[in-house]
């Protein structure tokens, strides 16, 4: 074991934090290679030219966009990491092909963070009333993206099953969205919807609490492996 691999002796965080966006980046490269292979097979000796002139398919490109979003948010979270705050990136959900983009551990609790690189303005639409059940929908522009909130809630529940005695909060962090100059952040069904700078501010304010950041970080890292 090299000195860089040796576990620290000062009680600092030693668990592997992972690489933000790594699984999305691998999936993008896999899909890109498969698309290019199909073009080469179709066009024979003109395959190289076909690859050079063809635009990427949208389903393939979306994985690249997602990876970039996770990478950018991961870099910001890494810049916050210190003795009072720890982060994990791209964690595999046991028994599933899905993953959790980012997990932040603060003295006040755990944040389960899903990064999205969407265009449009995130808004909360509330329906129902006295005679009808209250319904909250997340809109991005005109698109109903409420399923994103459902996904974060599911991830929060999965992490809570592992650390039931620690407060856990979910967050949807939109990179490059059309946020207003004043306000904009909101919460729906317990999930915070915000942007990277706002998220960083919220996390750095989570300084009061009884969570053992080092032990919790290592416990979650051992349960939720790097994807």
From TrEMBL:
Q: Where is the NERD domain?
A: 65-172
Q: Where is the composition biased (Basic and acidic residues)?
A: 24-37
- Region (Disordered) residue ranges read 1-37
Name of the protein this chain belongs to: NERD domain-containing protein
């Amino acid at each position: 074991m090299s000195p860089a691999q040796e576990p620290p002796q000062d009680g600092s965080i030693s668990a592997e934090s992972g690489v933000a966006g790594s699984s999305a980046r691998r999936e993008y490269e896999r899909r890109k290679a498969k698309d290019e292979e199909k073009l080469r097979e179709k066009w024979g000796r003109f395959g190289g030219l076909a690859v050079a002139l063809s635009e990427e398919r949208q389903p393939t490109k979306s994985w690249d966009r997602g990876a970039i979003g996770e990478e950018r948010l991961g870099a910001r979270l890494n810049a916050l990491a210190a003795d009072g705050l720890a982060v994990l990136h791209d964690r595999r959900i046991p028994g599933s092909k899905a993953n959790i983009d980012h997990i932040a551990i603060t003295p006040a609790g755990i944040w389960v963070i899903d990064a999205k690189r969407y265009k449009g303005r995130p808004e909360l639409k509330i329906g129902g009333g006295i005679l009808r059940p209250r319904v909250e929908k997340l809109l991005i522009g005109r698109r109903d993206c409420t399923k994103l909130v459902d996904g974060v809630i599911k991830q929060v529940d999965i992490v809570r099953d592992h650390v039931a005695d620690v407060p856990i909060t979910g967050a949807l962090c939109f990179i490059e969205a059309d946020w207003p100059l004043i306000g904009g952040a909101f919460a729906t069904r317990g999930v915070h919807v915000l942007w990277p700078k706002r998220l960083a501010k919220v996390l750095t304010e989570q300084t009061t609490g009884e969570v053992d950041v080092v032990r919790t970080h290592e416990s979650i890292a051992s349960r939720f492996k790097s994807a």
